[in-house]
Amino acid sequence: MAIQSFSSGQTLTAAQMNSLQANDYNQTVSAKTTSYTLVAGDVGTHVQMTAATATTISVPAATFSAGDSLFLSSQGAGAVTIAAASTAITVNGSSLTLAQYGGGTLRFQSASAATFFSGGAGSVSVDYLVVGGGAGGGFISANSGGSGGGGAGGLITGTAVSVPKGVSLTVTVGAKGNGATTAGSDGGQGSDSLFYIATAYGGGGGASSTSGTGNSGASGGGGQGNTGTAGGSGLVGQGQNGGSSVGQNGGSGGGGNTAAGSNASGNTGGAGGNGTASTISGSSVTYAAGGGGGGYGTSGGAGGSSGVGGAGGSNSSQAGGNATASCGSGGGGAGSPTSGGSNANGGNGSDGIVIIRTADTVPTATTTGAPTVTTAGGYTVYSFAASGTITF
């Protein structure tokens, strides 16, 4: 029931008294399906948004008085933003966006100032690991120097991060960069992975034996040994530089999360940079290692972290090795003999991954994208090998 006005000396009926009392215990609810601007008659009532898409509840100036209050809530799936209708009023609060089933009291300090006290839908504490897609290794044309290994995808972690309940959070898993398959082409760049506030960038492709330097990315791709070029640059906080082949004939290793790609040594390819081991999934797994550089008349470089990154090809026109699946690592560069032989392709990087875990006392989230969900050791773990969403 909206606020009532009575005149001096007026006698209230039993029905009026019952109606006033009922509102104290069972507020009048007005359901809204589209964005709405509050009116004076909403004082003392419950304004409930039921829209499936995002809406706004606007708070006007010069409409309410000091001490007025009303309750706002969201019943629909769409986020509800509480906002000032004009610059003539300020609306404060620790959270002015309501997820589904969130609510709170809007109280006015004056006709031009209000505060929203959110009961909210709450939050959940999560740990996460976000790894970008690893890059591919470079191509070699016959009888040219070894090509560069692919750089690893970036790696970002978060511990005890509060995320909102009732909100569909996007999970993007970065795709791998494929190994180069045509003359002069570098390894493909990895794509970015994303969860909540974390973005892990894709790795930089390894240099082809007839192109320029290694490509920059979260970790840089390795340089090539035909003309002897430098590796690509890594991104501070996500990965390391690719190795250099300046003055060398072998291809260099792609950068990993914790170590730069190794430089080529003469005709021998450089090893990929090492990645990082994490136990967030429940067992120790290494992510974001660089691919090895291809050799020239001799062996290629090892993949980073004992072969998580793809190995560089050897002197028999050998293609670069593929990275271990779903760990955001770089593919190996192709190797070349000093005479004879044929063209060879770079190895494929591997797709990134997003892993989110909560205490096992938190209700199981709703997801899309078919993550692997496991519960053990006091945690529920959601491992996304493909893009999707998660709602707690």
Topology:
Blueprint: H1 14-25, E1 29-32, E2 36-37, E3 46-49, E4 55-59, E5 69-74, E6 80-84, E7 90-92, E8 97-98, E9 103-110, E10 113-118, E11 123-131, E12 155-164, E13 169-172, E14 193-195, E15 198-200, E16 276-278, E17 285-287, H2 304-307, E18 353-359, E19 366-368, E20 372-376, E21 379-384, E22 388-391
Parallel strand pairs: 1-3, 2-4, 3-5, 4-6, 7-10
Antiparallel strand pairs: 5-9, 6-8, 9-10, 11-12, 11-18, 13-14, 13-22, 14-15, 16-17, 18-21, 19-22, 20-21
Task: Explain this structure.
This protein is mainly beta and 392 residues long. It folds into two domains: 14-118, Jelly Rolls (Sandwich); 122-392, no CATH class. Helix content is 4%, strand content 27%. It contains two helices and 22 strands. It has helices at residues 14-25, 304-307; strands at residues 29-32, 36-37, 46-49, 55-59, 69-74, 80-84, 90-92, 97-98, 103-110, 113-118, 123-131, 155-164, 169-172, 193-195, 198-200, 276-278, 285-287, 353-359, 366-368, 372-376, 379-384, 388-391. The strands form five sheets. A six-stranded mixed beta sheet has the order 1-3-5-9-10-7, with no helix packed on it. The chain is elongated, with a radius of gyration of 30 Å. The model has no long low-confidence stretch (mean pLDDT 92).
Protein structure class: mainly beta
Strand order of the largest sheet: 1-3-5-9-10-7
The total count of helices amounts to: 2
What distance separates the N and C termini?
A: 34 Å
Instruction: Supply the number of structural domains.
Output: 2
